[in-house]
Write a structure and sequence with these properties.
Layout lengths: L1 E7 L6 E7 L2 H8 L3 H5 L2 H20 L5 E5 L5 H8 L4 E5 L3 H13 L6 E4 L18 E6 L11 H11 L1 E8 L2 E10 L1 H4 L7 E5 L2 E5 L3 H4 L8 E3 L10 E2 L4 E7 L9 E7 L5 E13 L7 E3 L19 E12 L5 E7 L4 E7 L3 H6 L12 H4 L2 H7 L2 H14 L5 E5 L5 H7 L4 E5 L3 H10 L6 E4 L16 E5 L15 H8 L4 E8 L2 E11 L11 E2 L2 E2 L1 H11 L8 E3 L6 E3 L4 E7 L9 E8 L8 E11 L2 E4 L2 E4 L6 E3 L5 E5 L1 H4 L10 E9 L4 E7 L1
Parallel strand pairs: 3-4, 3-6, 4-5, 6-7, 20-21, 20-23, 21-22, 23-24
Antiparallel strand pairs: 1-2, 8-12, 8-13, 8-15, 9-10, 11-17, 14-18, 15-16, 15-17, 18-19, 25-29, 25-30, 25-32, 26-27, 28-36, 31-37, 32-33, 32-36, 34-35, 37-38
Helix pairs in contact: 1-16, 5-16
The structure holds S-adenosyl-L-homocysteine.
S-adenosyl-L-homocysteine (SAH) binds next to helix 4.
């Protein structure tokens, strides 16, 4: 069946009706899923297997039949492990239909048809009894329902229900226990993802400082977890203020309560500083003895010899509502509050016991200032990047005159404020989040200096502009709807739509943009798209086929966005400019295309091409959203830390082709369809 889905095209801004196969969503989900990454996580798999074997043995030693409940079976992997370990029967529950279907095939292919029953239901719908999904309650509970925050995928309510209705009292559980660890740190870099720092502008009439409205100062921000590859954060980017402490743990073999609660620990700061951030990760013990432990601890906590790269479980960064000065040796309380799905933190000074007891309740983080709804964490980081701001200031100084009438088209941009201080007379802005900007301008006494226009560019009228013509059109460009780097070319379409309102000699800033490309070898990221074949001896190729089928569901393979500062890679070619876009002119009718070849300069596996945009603000001034530099002769790359780059994985990764001869060049064909705003690409090794 086909359905029509309405959406705004991220590049052209046009409202389109797309004919989508009804399976489109699930293909997207599978193609972008973390199943492959989990199956490549050797450390996880080996430890689950050990834990499952031990649990089955304990049950057998008691002379009981081993009946396993595997909630969220995915490919069926953990049930197959249990069956191989001697379990008498496994109930494998999976809510996601395409996965449940795959599990049936995989179980059959591996010869476990009589031992494993796949149940395509949410575990809370599963029935027990002679006519039920399960004949009887299980005595071994196996799950892998954890996300980076541990509980974000609903592990607690699922366990709570399973203990009440699906498993026997005193059952074995794999994992047996999870423990959440925390460490208090000060980090200007991470704090810049959550608060807007004052912005300094050197204007002709002295230094101006752009400040935030007071609501932003103590706003707790949004509750969504900030999960990152903390192992890519150099130790020079944060100061440890406390030892690592255990915040709370969950015993999965006993009834679990999912209701909101809080936990409190006392910390003795090892250093004086500003408590801003709580870094957190967890480990799971697969058995009661704690001998089989799988940990997400970052590099400064555990030895590198046990290091396992994984992307499905990372580490968490929690932002305290305010920065709290702490003194070495002077104890403070750290409180973790959680509801069913998320965790948040607060630091309190250790004063009288009574006072602290009263203050334990911590309100769940709800953004009150609206800035955290307007700007996500990388965007905060970008706006706080004073070097980047300097490039905009320099270029605005070049183009602005005292009688400039300036229109800014960008989402949540502070360019109008910069432009105001740099002398533009009239300022107009088209932005999202009117109320936030109103408050922001007020905090800077600019409410009557900058006019906010709430209109789509194509609906802009001369009355919006008070019958003035625009002499300077600016944009960062940045739009919240952009996923891939080139989606910000929406600026070009908006510029085209407002053409009739521009003076004949209008200055457009940025004047142009260019798309750049480089061939890379990833240290680890390739794993997320690489087929598994077999996993711990089980044939899971059905899963590989399913992922490949979903990836090829769209006619052309697509590039995907990744923040590459978190995913080390080395360059195999020089970076190459492949397309340019001239914002001084309107979007052309014809497509822009290019083809050519890039020479490979270094030995390595060509995993894919990385693509990014550069914006040429004014003569000689650019901002780069991709490669910052190649830091050594090995080709290690440094990427813009605030942007996602586009990654196009070659079929050598997705099909696991073995390259017999190292290619010396890669040929490419790239086409920007100006009608659809889409970039299609093809590479040959
Ligand atoms: N057990 C597999 C897959 C883990 S991924 C492995 O270890 O490789 C978690 C899976 O659990 C997902 O497929 C998700 O769809 C499923 N899931 C999560 N909560 C569930 C629930 N309460 N009932 C049934 N399936 C669930």
């Amino acid at each position: 069946m086909k359905t029509f889905c309405g959406r705004a095209n991220p590049t052209t801004g046009a409202m389109e009706w797309l004919e989508e196969d009804e399976n489109y969503d699930y293909h997207q989900e599978i193609a972008r899923s973390r199943y492959a990454d989990m199956l490549h996580d050797k450390d996880r798999n080996v430890k689950y297997y050990e834990g499952i074997r031990a649990a089955v043995n304990r049950v057998k030693e008691r002379g009981e039949k081993a009946i396993v409940l595997d909630i969220g079976t995915g490919t069926g992997l953990l049930s197959m492990m249990a069956a191989s370990a001697g379990a008498d029967f496994c109930y494998a529950v999976e809510v996601f239909k395409p996965m449940a279907n795959a599990a049936v095939k995989i179980v059959e292919k591996n010869g476990f048809r009589d031992k494993i029953k796949v149940i395509n239901k949410h575990s809370t719908e599963v029935t027990v009894g002679p006519d039920g999904d399960m004949q009887c309650r299980a005595n071994i509970l196996v799950t892998e329902l954890f996300d980076t925050e541990l509980i974000g995928e609903g592990a607690l309510p699922t366990y709570e229900h399973a203990h009440k209705y699906l498993v026997q009292e005193g059952c074995e559980a794999v994992p047996y226990r999870a423990t959440v660890y925390v460490q208090l740190v000060e980090s200007k870099r991470m704090w810049s993802w959550n608060k807007l720092f004052p912005i300094h502008v050197e204007a002709e009439d002295g230094e101006k400082i752009i400040v935030s409205p007071s609501e932003m100062e103590d706003c707790p921000g949004v509750p969504s977890v900030c999960d990152i590859q903390l192992n890519q954060m150099p130790s020079s980017d944060f100061t440890v203020l406390s030892d690592v402490v255990t915040m709370f743990s969950v015993d999965f073999s006993k009834p679990v309560r999912s209701a909101s609660t809080s936990y409190r620990v006392q910390l003795e700061p090892v250093k004086s500083g500003k408590a801003q951030i709580v870094l957190s990760w967890w480990d799971i013990d697969m058995d009661p003895s704690g001998m089989i432990n799988c940990t997400m601890a970052p590099y400064w906590v555990k030895s590198t010899s046990t290091f396992q790269w994984r992307d499905h479980w990372m580490q968490c960064v929690y932002f305290l509502p305010n920065e709290e000065p702490v003194l070495q040796g002077e104890k403070v309380y750290l409180t973790a509050c959680r509801d069913e799905y998320s965790v948040w933190y607060k630091v309190q000074k250790a004063r009288g016991e009574e006072e602290n007891k009263a203050a334990v309740h911590v309100e769940s983080p709800v953004c009150r200032c609206q800035a955290h709804l307007l700007w996500n964490r990388p965007r905060f980081g970008q706006l706080n990047d004073q070097n980047r701001t300097c490039q905009y200031i320099k270029s605005l100084m070049k183009v602005l005159k005292t009688d400039s009438v300036c229109l800014c088209i960008s989402d949540g941009s502070l360019l109008p404020v910069l432009a105001h201080y740099l002398g533009a007379k009239q300022l107009l802005i088209k932005t999202v989040c009117y109320f936030f900007f109103f408050k922001f301008f007020k905090a800077n006494n600019l409410e009557d200096k900058i006019k906010i226009i709430e209109a789509r560019p194509e609906l802009l009228t001369s009355s919006h502009l008070e019958d003035k013509k625009i002499s300077v059109l600016v944009g960062e460009p940045f739009f919240t709807t952009s996923l891939l780097p080139w989606h910000n070319l929406y600026f070009w379409y908006a510029r085209t739509a407002v053409t009739s309102h521009l003076t004949s000699n209008v200055t457009v800033l940025p004047q142009s943009a260019s798309l750049h490309m480089m061939i890379v070898e990833f240290q680890d990221l390739w794993r997320i798209r690489s087929p598994c074949g077999t996993c711990e001896g089980f044939d899971v190729q059905t899963m590989d086929d399913m992922i490949n089928n979903s990836m090829n569901f769209r006619e052309s393979k697509e590039a995907e966005p990744h923040p590459l500062w978190e995913y080390p890679c080395k360059s195999l070619s020089d970076p190459q400019e492949v397309l340019t876009f001239d914002f001084r002119k309107t979007v052309p009718e014809y497509s822009l295309s290019t083809e050519g070849s890039v020479n490979l300069l270094r030995k390595g596996k060509s995993h894919g091409a990385v693509l990014w945009m550069e914006y040429h603000l004014a003569a000689g001034i650019s901002v780069n959203t991709g490669l910052m530099q190649i830091s050594n002769e090995k080709g290690n790359c440094e990427w813009n830390p605030h942007c996602k780059q586009a990654v196009y994985f070659f079929s050598s990764v997705t099909e696991s082709e073995t390259l017999l001869d190292l290619p010396s060049a890669v040929t490419y064909a790239i086409n920007f369809n100006t009608k659809t705003g889409e970039i299609a690409m093809d590479f040959k090794l």
